[in-house]
Amino acid sequence: MKKILSIAFALSLLLGSPALFQVSAAKPGTAALPQGAPLKTMQGTVKVDGEKVMFVADDDNKSWEVLNPDTLKAHAGHHVEISAHVYADKSQLHVMSVKMVKKSDK
Predict the structure, then answer these.
(1) Share of the chain above pLDDT 90, in %
(2) With respect to CATH, is domain 39-100 assigned 3.40.50.920?
(3) For residue 96, with 0-12 CB atoms within 10 Å meaning exposed, 13-18 middle and 19 or more buried, which class applies?
(4) What CA–CA distance (Å, rounded) separates 106 from 92?
């Protein structure tokens, strides 16, 4: 009986220990976000054309394609401030937060 218990204990240690030392490469919920894109805050206007949602920045009038359009679709035509991961090489944004703001005169 002691021999069977010893073997079972040894097998459980042998098979269970790799799970204790396993390191996760990514945090849960962040796998969908591309790596390396800086987070920026910008103000501008939301433009919606069918399913396509664009953000037009106030600073330079540059149009940005929104990668997660559902976040801005309800703000069509509104002036907003967004916090987004910016992919300048592709002119794309992944919006993290949206806040309505009044348009300021420059």
Answers:
(1) 56
(2) no
(3) middle
(4) 26
CA dist., res. 55 & res. 77, Å (int): 10
42, two tokens: 């910008």
- pLDDT in the model for residue 26: 43
Give the domain ranges of the chain. 39-100
Please work out, in degrees rounded to the nearest 5, the angle formed at the alpha carbon of residue 27 by the alpha carbons of 95 and 64.
Answer: 15
**pLDDT tens profile 47-58:** 998 889 999 999
**Amino acid in the structure at residue 78:** H
Residue whose structure tokens are 């030392």:
21
Q: What is the pTM of this model?
A: 0.64
